[in-house]
Amino acid sequence: MSECVASGDIYQQLVTLLKDENARFRIMEHEPVGKCEAVSVVRGTRLEQGAKALVCKVKGNSVKRHVLAILSAAQQADLSKIAHHFGGLKASLASPLEVETLTQCVFGAIPPFSFHPELTLIADPGLFLQQQEIAFNAGRLEKSIILNTDDYLRIARPQLVNFTR
User: Fold this and answer.
1) In total, how many domains does the chain have?
2) pLDDT tens string 69-98
3) String of b and e for 3-37 (b: at least 16 CB within 10 Å)?
4) Is residue 164 assigned to a domain?
5) The YbaK/aminoacyl-tRNA synthetase-associated domain covers which part of the protein (predicted)?
6) How far apart are CA 164 and CA 76, in angstroms?
């Protein structure tokens, strides 16, 4: 299952957005790979450059919110830090159905951009340290984009939140 689901084509939306914003990027086609370590080898990029996307839900203290958390593929997320940032008591990973509903993509294909109004985008600043480019699956398991880091930050405008372990 490598194609985005639902009505939208996130890959096309993403490419159009990047072109319209004059971003410096390149597209790679490869075998469908969803695991960070394997896809970095296929791309010929370092694991640290990989932009891993986690769809989380934050609950508690009258908070109920979905978050798209972006971090380096070489790092692990501390979900309690995400919950704390939003004033919630706990955070957990979203279900596969929630992921598909909010991102229109399957696990492993989610790009580091939110195209859904109820999906708040955050990124751990550690991803951008010493990285001139980030790499990520572009809405499809068989397509990756390697994007200039400054262009990503300018276009996506994530909230920068320290949430790695």
Assistant:
1) 1
2) 999 999 999 999 999 999 999 999 999 999
3) ebeeeeebbebbbeebeeeebebeebeeebbeebe
4) no
5) 30-154
6) 6
Residue keyed to tokens 């891993």: 52
Nearest CA to 154 out of 2, 20, 3, 5 is that of 20
Angle at 126 between CA 42 and CA 98, to 5 degrees: 70
Identify whether 64 is part of a domain.
yes
Neighbour tally for 79: CB within 10 Å: 20
* Of 127, 4, 104, 119, nearest in space to 56 by CA: 119
Confidence grade of residue 3 (pLDDT, cut at 50, 70, 90) = very low
d(CA 42, CA 24): 21
Q: What is the CATH number of the domain that holds 21?
A: 3.90.960.10
Amino acid at 37: E
